[in-house]
């Protein structure tokens, strides 16, 4: 489950010194866990170890999508096999199994091929996480009163330790190897993947209980419907992914059409295509910087393109006037946000656009128009558009003033 580290194709020397040290320590610790684990294999465990290692290698490249959180998460059958090994052969003896699964994940079918140091780090992370989760399982099993729910608590603690260590080690290397953007992205994806660890732990416990009770045929009987369910789910997920791709393409086409319309409208105000592109890029950047949701970000981007669509109702001599507007002309100009919002309301956008168009000339002190909103009464998307519109407008020359510089 360890993800790719930064600079994966640039060689280990491209990593900061702290990251190189971390990779070396984790790799060495993983190898030590495997070496010690091989010495802890009890007599009679050999066949079970071989079967589990083979399953870990075979399932290493499989990811099962789970729609359990926003953005979804994936369950790795190889992780499930590692936890089954923990429950059946103990924490230390399961380290070689996890190590073998990680090696298969990083080498068999990996395109492009992972660099050696990333493979070493991933194998070390898997081995350490597996051993630690097994120790947590044993400690919990012997410290909690023996009840019917004791093993559930113990396996949940094992999944928690595995999750924290596996993601924590990867996150630590990312933190010292990259800037804040990648680190924040990793943190956002952290909790999104957490449910899969507990789903996998529940599956591992079920299989381990059946095997320990001698019900091997039950496992085989469950395997067939589980595989068929998995194949059906994959086919269903594939159809959903294809539909989402088509919706995304359609959305991009619609946005391109909106942009072309916006350019035609803004031509009345001598606004260039570059200005609109800057508006869109800066608005999206600010929206992401304050962690707006994806639908709200799309709403801001669309409103950034159409914020002045109400200029269709403004006489051209007012928009192109080189000097200061008269009071009557300025009052006429102030109707464009409301006209634009009225036009936008007739379009069934799946995200808010009209309120942002209506309020993009409001001011924090309440002296804006058309409604005189102030402070946080102004929609945050409209505040973003107002700031970006002011900034990008100052970068352009006007009949009544020269262009400002970025500085």
Report on the architecture of this protein.
The chain has helices spanning 17-39, 46-58, 77-89, 95-107, 116-143, 150-177, 180-212, 216-266, 273-289, 294-306, 316-319, 327-333, 336-345, 354-359, 380-394; strands at 64-66, 73-75. The protein is built from 15 helices and two strands. It has 407 residues and is an all-alpha fold. A hairpin with a 6-residue loop joins β1 (64-66) and β2. It is elongated and about 95 Å long. A two-stranded antiparallel sheet has the order 1-2. The chain starts with 16 loop residues before the first helix and ends in a 13-residue tail after the last helix.
Describe, in short, the structure shown.
67% of the residues lie in helices and 1% in strands.
Describe the structure using short key phrases.
elongated, 15 helices, disordered N terminus, 407 residues, mainly alpha, 2 strands, two-stranded antiparallel ribbon
